Amino acid sequence: MARKTKADALATRAAILDAAEAVIEREGIPATTLNQIGREAGVTRGAIYWHFKDKEDLLDAMVARAAFPLDDLRAADARAETTDALDELRQFGEQALIRLAEDPHYRRVCRILLHGCVRLGRHHLFIAEEEAVKSNIHDALVRLFQKARDQGTLDPAINPELAAWSFGSYMRGLYSDWLLAPDRIDLAQSASAILGTYLNGVRARDDGNDAAR
Amino acid sequence: MARKTKADALATRAAILDAAEAVIEREGIPATTLNQIGREAGVTRGAIYWHFKDKEDLLDAMVARAAFPLDDLRAADARAETTDALDELRQFGEQALIRLAEDPHYRRVCRILLHGCVRLGRHHLFIAEEEAVKSNIHDALVRLFQKARDQGTLDPAINPELAAWSFGSYMRGLYSDWLLAPDRIDLAQSASAILGTYLNGVRARDDGNDAAR
DNA sequence: CTTTACATACCGGCGTGTATGTATATTTTC
DNA sequence: GAAAATATACATACACGCCGGTATGTAAAG
User: Fold this and answer.
1) How confident is the prediction for chain B on average, in pLDDT?
2) How many domains does chain A have?
3) Residue that is last in its domain, among A65, A84, A114
4) What was the pLDDT predicted at B206?
5) How far apart are CA A133 and CA A128, in angstroms?
6) Is any atom of nucleic acid chain D found less than 7 Å from the CB of residue A7?
7) Which residue of B has its CA nearest to A26?
8) One domain, residues A151 and A80
9) Which domain holds residue B34?
10) A206 in B contact zone (CB under 8 Å)
11) How far, CA to CA in Å, does B62 sit from each of A106, A107, A211, B56, B202?
12) Which residues of chain B, if any, have pLDDT below 50?
């Protein structure tokens, strides 16, 4: 072939990124070759090198396309000014798990970031990006747990900072574990129960004498 | 050099395995070359190919050296015949986290298995092994939660099977998350609180009328 | 003298990056 | 508005290095 129209070129670029996702999901980043990506996308390495500086640049663009539900979390935090913070947290967590179960694109990117050898070797470019996202998530979680404490729904024995870390790890573990064996559990259906058991543990126990307030 | 004594040879073998751990921890499995391992171990690839059939064989031997605390979990399950199952679970979890924080060897292997691209590409050999361990862990957890249910300490609304899965994911998330940023939290010190918040959520609430039994 | 425990040398393959070819879209010129 | 010039969007070909595997050398242990 030869030169395509501008729209065609953009489609090619997107196809390359899609192919990269698919191949990397199977093989992991270090084992993925530009040949495989090209074959999957139906182009040669020439096309890849035209659209991207090098392999690193391609990976960077691929990760950049992934949108994490950070906005949802922030929205939940904002709503929690007037609503039950722990309830917002449960709803957010449920939504995240359901999205993982039902959005194949999101699932692929999560698999790559969790099991794709992202932070080994010298892939410093997007680990900085992901680190920032993680840090933002943690901050939002801390704020939510602080609101819960102020609302009196958080068990006073629990440190909001630690709770945020623990909750984040719980979600990461659920993501990671489920992605290894997606068929073992109907995640969308169990999401509510899974989140519930955890949040039960951090919620203050109203031992009768709390109804007065 | 030339031929060493039998003990020397064993030491060389161990050095190669140690080096493999160290390099793979940094680079991940697919990006690790036998040259790097040899350099790290102070030998050439010749030595590696003498002790191991090929790369896969070396990796297999490396993973085989790692002992997972499956026995501890089974012991906890056995003790739970006469003790509080949820308490056994908490103690086991704490021990596991503390070991992760304090045993560098265990830490390395966990990092490799969690972030080393183990199950991508064609490393079928030891994913079978790890799959079996995981399955055993899950079974032991289910038994423990069932005991807790029988003992009346488990919230009756919670399904033991789901709880086992959820608890396993929680631990995996804690491992995975902490290994990414070990300095952010003093794991050994927080272990108790971290486990406590979770197990609080699954424990039956004795709303007064449970003291009779 | 044979076996062991490696080191060294060699080979085929593959992957990255780059240089070059080329047909077409787009722009420029008249 | 058609032809010429040029930039675009790739495909093809090439150079280079490195990696895994194997074949061979070799000095000391047994």
Assistant:
1) 87
2) 2
3) A65
4) 60
5) 9
6) no
7) B120
8) yes
9) 6-63
10) no
11) 34, 31, 58, 10, 37
12) 1, 208-213
A119: CB partners within 8 A, 6+ apart: A127, A130, B115, B180
Whether residues A24 and A122 fall in one domain:
no
Which nucleotide lies at the shortest CA–C1' distance from B44?
A: C7
Q: Do B122 and B182 lie in a common domain?
A: yes
Identify whether residues A83 and A152 lie together within a single domain.
Answer: yes
Ordered mean pLDDT values, 10 residues apiece, chain A (213 residues): 76 94 88 93 94 90 82 94 95 94 88 79 68 92 95 91 94 94 92 91 64 39
Please check whether residues A54 and A79 belong to one and the same domain.
no
Nucleotide nearest B4, CA–C1', reads: C5
| Cα B81 to the center of its chain, rounded Å | 25
Is any atom of strand C within 7 angstroms of residue B44's beta carbon? Answer: yes
B9 in contact with nucleic chain C (CB within 7 A): yes
- Say whether both A34 and A76 belong to one domain: no
Q: Cα distance from B202 to chain A (closest Cα, Å)?
A: 6
The pair of three-digit structure tokens given for residue A2, joined into one six-digit string: 């030869």
